[in-house]
Amino acid sequence: MEPLPPLRLLTVFETVDRAGSMRAAAAELNVSLPAVSQSLKALEDHVGVALFDRTVRPARLTQAGQQLAQAVREGIGLISAAIASIRASASGEAPALTVACTVGMATHWLMPRLSGFYAAHPDILINVQAMPSDLKRRAPGMDVVLRYGDGGWTDGTTQVLFPERICPVGHPALVARLAEAGTGLHMAPLIHVEFEGARHWTGWAEYCRLSGLPAPRSRGLMFNTYVQAVQAALHGQGLILGWRSITEGIEAEGRLARWPGGELDLGTAYHMTIAPEAEAGPACRAFAEWLLAEGAAQP
């Protein structure tokens, strides 16, 4: 039997694949970029073929690399699930699921609803991992991933939770004042969210273009998390693009108001991706059914 490469090399390879670049993987692993490059070269030497096409930037997986990446994701995921199951059985703990989503999704959509799941399933524990941005790849050990996009992921079974829509929102007094003055969105004080990994989220320039409006005149306030941007909007510092999944509850409370006629349907949605090694478990099935019901109940 051909000896396997060191697990360390496979871990680096999986991290590069999931993070999207060697630089991002080096930051996540807290090692230098040359160390990541050397690990990948050692893995390629072991396999005997090139796993990355380095003629493009960032380097991307070759066909052989894609084949190995899928096997590594599944293998590490199965190992993580087995260890978690063994630990739970040995300690007599309740079954637990690890759920990953963005900080905004966790704060404003998932966490306020989790009490309802616990009421129906008090014997299942949900560990929430809040990420700064949507994951390109589901990491090993993550049973369920909630993320925004077109649903084209291949790292598990993916289903639509609910369609996503956007609409400019702001403090009710600010929205009323701008409307009374006849101020257009392109002249209004705007709040932007920009950070690595958020490029698939529509920004103000794209929103105005799709809505047939003039481009924004001023740069406005800038934040690197949506949660910070929401807090600034709540304090009347400007308008933000309100995503249905995040601001709808705050709007219902009357703390944020919509820009009249500003809603835009991008044809995108929030999705649930379930790890192959977890979807057969009763705890995961119960949580998935609950998530789908919550998504269907979204106004």
Overall description:
It is built from ten helices and eleven strands. The chain starts with 6 loop residues before the first helix and ends with a helix. With 299 residues, the chain is α/β, with parallel strands linked by helices. Among the domains are: 7-74, Arc Repressor Mutant, subunit A; 163-268, Periplasmic binding protein-like II (D-Maltodextrin-Binding Protein, domain 2, 3-Layer(aba) Sandwich). It has helices spanning 7-19, 22-29, 33-47, 63-91, 103-120, 172-181, 204-210, 226-234, 244-252, 282-296; strands at 52-53, 60-61, 96-102, 125-131, 144-149, 157-170, 191-193, 221-223, 240-243, 257-258, 264-274. The model has no long low-confidence stretch (mean pLDDT 84). Strands 3, 4, 5, 6, 9, 10 and 11 form a seven-stranded mixed β-sheet that branches. The chain has a two-stranded antiparallel ribbon with strand order 1-2. It has a two-stranded parallel sheet with strand order 7-8. Helix content is 44%, strand content 20%. Helix 2 crosses helix 3 (33-47).
Report the portion of residues in β strands. Answer: 15-25%
**Bulk shape:** globular
The average pLDDT is 84
* End-to-end gap: 56 Å
How many distinct beta strands?
A: 11
Q: What's the SSE pattern?
A: HHHEEHEHEEEHEHEHEHEEH
Would you tell me which CATH topology of the domain at 163-268 applies? D-Maltodextrin-Binding Protein, domain 2
Tell me about the largest β-sheet.
7 strands, mixed
**Helix share, percent:** 40-55%
- Could you state the CATH homologous superfamily of the domain at 163-268? Periplasmic binding protein-like II
Secondary-structure-based class equals: alpha/beta
Low-confidence stretches: none
Counted by DSSP, the helix tally is 10
Task: Kindly provide the radius of gyration, computed on alpha-carbon positions and rounded to a whole number of angstroms.
Answer: 22 Å
CATH C-level class of the domain at 163-268: Alpha Beta
